[in-house]
Amino acid sequence: MTKMHVKLNVNGRAVEGLAEPRTLLIHFLRENLRITGPHIGCETSHCGACTVDMDGRSVKSCTVFVAQADGAEITTVEGLVNEDGSLGVIQEMFREHHGLQCGFCTPGMITRAHRLLQENPTPTEEEVRFGMAGNLCRCTGYQNIVKAILASAEMLNAQKEAAE
Amino acid sequence: MKDDVATPEDRSASLKGMGSSRKRVEDVRFTQGKGNYVDDIRMDGMLFGDFVRSPYAHARITRIDAEAAKAVPGVIAVLTAADLEPLGLHWMPTLAGDKQMVLADGKVLYQGQEVAFVVAEDRYIAADAVELVEVEYEELPVVVDPFKALEPDAPVLREDLEGQTEGAHGPRRHHNHIFTWEQGDKDATEAVLSEADVVAEEMVYYHRTHPCPLETCGCVASMDKVTGKLTVWGTFQAPHAVRTVVSLISGIAEHNIRIISPDIGGGFGNKVGVYPGYVCSVVASIVTGKPVKWVEDRMDNLMTTAFARDYWMQGKIAATKEGRITGLWCHTTADHGGFDACADPTKFPAGFMNICTGSYDIPVAYLAVDGVYTNKAPGGVAYRCSFRVTEAAYFIERMVEVLAIKLGMDAAELRRINFIRADQFPYQSALGWEYDSGDYHTAWDKALTAVNYDALRAEQAQRLEDFKAGKTRRLIGIGLTHFTEIVGAGPVKNCDILGLGMFDSCEIRIHPTGSAIARLGTISQGQGHATTFAQIIASEIGIPADDITLEEGDTDTAPYGLGTYGSRSTPVAGAATAMAARKIRAKAQMIAAYLLEVHDDDVEFDVDRFAVKGAPERFKSMKEIAFAAYNQAIPGLEPGLEAVSYYDPPNMTYPFGAYICVMEFDVDTGEHEVRQFYALDDCGTRINPMIIEGQVHGGATEGYAIAMGQEIVYDEMGNVMTGTLMDFFLPTAWETPHYTTDHTVTPSPHHPIGAKGVGESPNVGSVPCFSNAVHDAFRPFGLTQSHMPHDHWRIWRIANELGLHG
Amino acid sequence: MIPAGFEYHRPTDIASAIGILQQHGDEARVIAGGHSLIPMMKLRMADLAHLVDLQAIDDLRDIEIAGGEARIGAMVTQHELITHEGLAGVLPILREAALQIADPQVRYLGTVGGNVANGDPGNDMPGLMQCVDARFELVGPEGTREVAARAFYEAAYFTARGDEEILTQIRIPLPVQGTGYAYEKQKRKIGDYATAATAVLIGNGTASVAMTNLADTPIWSEDAGTALAGGDVEGAVAAMLGAIEPMADNRGPAAFKKHVAGVLLRRAIERAQQRAG
User: Fold this and answer.
1) What is the pTM of this model?
2) DSSP result, A113-150
3) CB contact burial A56-93 (16+ within 10 A = b; e otherwise)
4) How far apart are alpha carbons A137 and A143 in whole angstroms?
5) Confidence band (pLDDT; 50, 70, 90) for B2?
6) Terminus of chain B with fewer CB atoms < 10 Å: N or C?
7) DSSP class of residue C252?
8) A contacts of C8 (beta carbons < 8 Å)
9) Which of C10, C168, C33, C36 is nearest to C109 (CA)?
10) Is the pLDDT of residue C260 over 80?
């Protein structure tokens, strides 16, 4: 099968590679680029473990061909770490509030939460639960995930206020 | 020195030992995507394996032609049973004393069964080649109903066993029969039943489901032809047991096998067994000399690796007219699928189903379980429960409710008058267990008070009146459960897996500067072992948990252990950890006494130091002691400070809990709402309250899914109807209820730190709790029993059959 | 779950896209958000050699409200539909329905055009479009034509769209001020297709009712609309229940679905009536 030349911007870095058009974005990220934060859980776009941010949208990278993503700007959980290497706010709040157990869903959860809070910086618990409903977790029962995201919202807003 | 002024409380807090809600050390990696799961492993030259699977549930294979597949560029090999047979690997032993095909040997017994293994340069090529393997099938009659499987003219599923009247667990009475397991006193129980004031009888079905961890099963097998060493990274809940099994079935010496469980994305029992994918990857690596990766997809996972439950439990419960339970009888028909691959201790073919007398003082009981072959996938794993304990808990908690209906009693009160009293522990159950400890009345009363039970019943009664008056179409159900778990398998005298005693282990090394590493025979799949086991050591030895590294899962470095499932890590490996720590503390005491120039008996342990009795200002900190262990020549003591403990528990532990939920049901659509869920757990000594709470949330959510919709469905042809997460119910944050957690603490008397284990309690307890709420809502209209899962249409059917749709 | 290989095309105008379809015949398929097609390809249940991605055709992304109608480009995503304030003002039923489709991630990529064009009886938009009397613009080698949503669906995955045509735009007449609306959907969980779903518009002496996933096409019942316009709720329900033909699946048996359809319909009608000015 002919390969195509794919160019992406991933976590602020321009990357390129050769891939068959049918290559799923999740496989391109994980295997060609060795970005293994996003995981494969269900393969039918139900579980959200493969969630990445693509051009400002949360997408399930198991259901996107790399050909469709050619030219896109992508952020994964690896890209949400602070510049000094410390955990970003949402990552830190997941840890603080025990929002993860086995950790398999966590990269997708955090990446999705990032976009949710970009769009709605002051969500209610109900909005968080609705906005996170594309991500499945088998360990936590979501209660502490919701708590972590609400706490992240508060902290991000406090940081924003302090900066203003 | 700061140390000198700090109070013992401050010093204790700084250790982050037992009782502290210490943040998890694992999370720094996981939150930034730096976990290392099996599919993250990549090696030079690594190949990828994928299966050709049977579309039929029962068929003879007349021809396999792999030529077209082999011709695809990048395909290295296509393995079939014929290729494995010369190695003796076309079949493998199961954990239940049966054997199982690795690749279809002449026939298939369930849809999705592995027929051929394609090995290629990448997963895309492998998938393309799978499509090109031609297999000719001759369909055979399918049987998916275990009762029909036992009819005289039922199709013979296991032709390999024809004529064998003796199975691994006694006589087989039919060609599709596997075993009969009997416990208790049949005659005495039947005598009680025949003379009782009241007998309630019901068939209680616990449907087939699946643990479905978010990460599926997989492995990377790498045979190094130069050193002769086989390394297998994989999703293994019991890495040491896997090493021994691989050695036994492959003939490779055990020291030449290294099994590594990297980070595991949830297990819940799915990753206890040994699957054909592991065996084929090992063979393929040996044949090709290259590393071979196999990772199942979600459909493979739901169709083939490790179903759970599928127990048909016929029950009879006898009582006096005042409600004192006098006897319990249960006959279970257990659907095991095409092979008996249940993951149970050898002597327990139906696991610990004989805990089915539950929390109640029942003088006499009888249990019989018949295992049956059908055209379904093998498995029968303990899905977030100790072996068959959730089935047992569901059975007794339904039977008590059914009895309450028969007696016209409140089900909370019926429970209360039948609980084993606190003064009866240790309690000998009618089916052979010695319950170590418990205080059920205290827990129950605390729970009823917390939810304001009487007010809830009043509200429910008012709602019922409103419903009858046509003012509402929503009914309220109050779900009650008091469960008793049996976990921590287990004493080597009666618990083994493939002959391996179910002890566990911990090795601790204190470094010269006072930090430490500990290695265990268990493996975390999200339970946070690296966090909690360090807390045990911190409290026992007095060095900060933050200074202790914890390692698990590598059989070349960790001491031998039987792994993590059945809530056994804390009861068994946790005990081993405490015992190893105490060995170190004992030596530290001698070192401290030497340094302080007093007799060993004249120093005492004080949080993080040994101090001279009566002179607390004269002490040596653990840091000082650790250094001394490496730099002082102490008469009569070897240098160094390390210890290992292999712990054989004297008994199981018996965590318990009281769960109450309030649900509302839309009679017309079958939809439900969980208004409230209260979970009181008593897991004995609490190591990390934050992690316990997280375990309860997660386990209760799995229980919610199982009770309200999660099911592996087969049609009459043996087709799996629930192969994706569209149809296999995993609730999202939106459907999942909010939980209130609570606790009492009744330490285990025989466990070194009194801990009992908690990971599985919420699954065991919540399933009957949700189910009882459903039944409770419709009890006034005459419902006694309706099988799970209680999805919308089945709730609707209850209402419909009770005439509530006008 | 690995799809078979294909050639990828990303045309920048409709004419080129149609040219590719003409060149490759039934070996070519159009892809919008891909959330119906890609899973089918991964299960190897959709076989194609050429994939024509419409994402670079800018004309297909517009939303215009003018001349008494809303014109929605086929590549407008569910997410854009939900967040478009203008649409929320004039056609609030679109947002109410779109919020009940799939989950956030799927709604960011899933398009209105894909949802209506693919003919999956489980999709929510087709029934909704029949309720609001949308017209679909189809562009093909022979030019542009319009087909009413109510005449578009022939059977499961079979529609009035020709193989070489592309659905480019959806035109919806704006309901008059004071029209009541409701979209009711019962599902097992977020991400599921409907057990039953219904769209209702009522107001100014007219009414329209459609239902989803209760037959192999969406069902719009003229009789139900007429009855409802005349205030006959039970007549409307009876007409609709006579028109649907639910099939048993994992969501439940046909009798259950039929019952739920009636319940949802009554609830939607009640809610729409309350909203009618």
Assistant:
1) 0.97
2) HHHHHHH-SS--HHHHHHHTTT---SSS-SHHHHHHHH
3) ebbbbbbbbbbbbbbebebbbbbbbbeeeeebbbbbbb
4) 11
5) very low
6) C
7) B
8) 4, 21, 65, 67
9) C33
10) yes
pLDDT exceeds 80 at position B592: yes
The per-residue pLDDT for range B28-82, each reduced to its tens digit, is 999 999 999 999 999 999 999 999 999 999 999 999 999 999 999 999 999 999 9
Closest CA to B243 of B524, B563, B575, B519: B563
- What are the tens digits of pLDDT across the range B413-465? 999 999 999 999 999 999 999 999 999 999 999 999 999 999 999 999 999 99
Q: Which amino acid is at B758?
A: V
CB of A149 closer than 8 Å to CB of A112: no
ipTM of this complex? 0.98
Q: How many CB atoms lie within 10 A of CB C222?
A: 12
Chain B residue with Cα closest to A76: B33
Of the candidates B748, B733, B656, the residue with the CA atom closest to the CA atom of residue B697? B733
C-alpha dist (Å) from residue B588 to B245, B480, B514, B596, B634 = 39, 50, 12, 12, 12
Tokens standing for B226?
Answer: 């130069």
3-state helix, strand, coil in chain C (%, to 5): 40, 25, 35
> How far does the CA of residue B741 sit from the closest CA of chain C (Å)?
25
Does the distance separating the beta carbons of C4 and A22 come in below 8 Å? Answer: yes
* CB B350, CB B386: distance < 8 Å: no
Q: Flag whether residue B738 sits within 8 Å of chain A, measured between CB atoms.
A: yes
The answer to whether the beta carbons of residues B730 and B702 sit under 8 Å apart is: no
Q: What is the residue type of B121?
A: E
Q: Is the distance from CB of C44 to CB of C86 less than 8 angstroms?
A: no
Tokens 């003088």 appear where?
Answer: B363
Phi, psi of B466 (to 5 degrees): -60, -40
E strand intervals along B512-562: 516-520, 548-552
Q: Taking the CA of residue B221 as centre, how many other CA atoms within 13 Å lie in the half-sphere pointing to its CB?
A: 28
> Contact C168/C60 with Cβ under 8 angstroms?
yes
What would the pLDDT profile of B434-445 be if each residue is shown by its tens digit? 999 999 999 999
Looking at beta carbons, which residues of chain C come within 8 Å of B673? none
C-alpha to C-alpha distance for B90 and B105, rounded to whole angstroms: 7
Looking at the complex, report in whole angstroms how far the Cα of residue A81 sits from the nearest Cα belonging to chain B: 7
Determine the Cα–Cα distance for residues B627 and B622; give it in Å rounded to an integer.
9
Contact B796 C263 (CB under 8 A): no
**Pairing of the two strands B325-337 and B365-373:** parallel
- For residue A91, the model assigns a pLDDT of 98
Residue appearing with tokens 């934060």: A37
Q: Which residues contact B187 (CB under 8 A, 6 or more apart)?
A: none
Tokens of A16: 């390129």
On the question of pLDDT at B3 being above 80, the answer is no
- Give the residue, B499 or B507, on which the prediction is more confident: B507
Name the amino acid, one letter, at B36. Answer: N
Could you read off the pLDDT of C62-110 as tens digits, one per residue?
Answer: 999 999 999 999 999 999 999 999 999 999 999 999 999 999 999 999 9
Asked whether residue B1 carries a pLDDT value surpassing 60, the answer given is no
Residues B135/B115, Cβ–Cβ less than 8 Å: yes
Tell me the chain A residues in contact with residue B697 when contact means C-beta distances shorter than 8 Å: 140-144
Catalytic residue of the set B384, B568, B609, B686: B384
Asked whether the CA dihedral C215, C220, C226, C232 is positive or negative, the reply is positive
Nearest CB to C186; choose among B123, B671, B734: B671
**Structure token pair of residue B636:** 């009569």
Interface test with B, best of A20, A46, A104, A114 (most B CBs within 10 A): A104
Mean pLDDT for B348-376 is 98
CA atoms of B356 and B392, how far apart (whole Å): 4
Given a contact cutoff of 8 angstroms between Cβ atoms, the answer to whether C85 and C55 are in contact is no
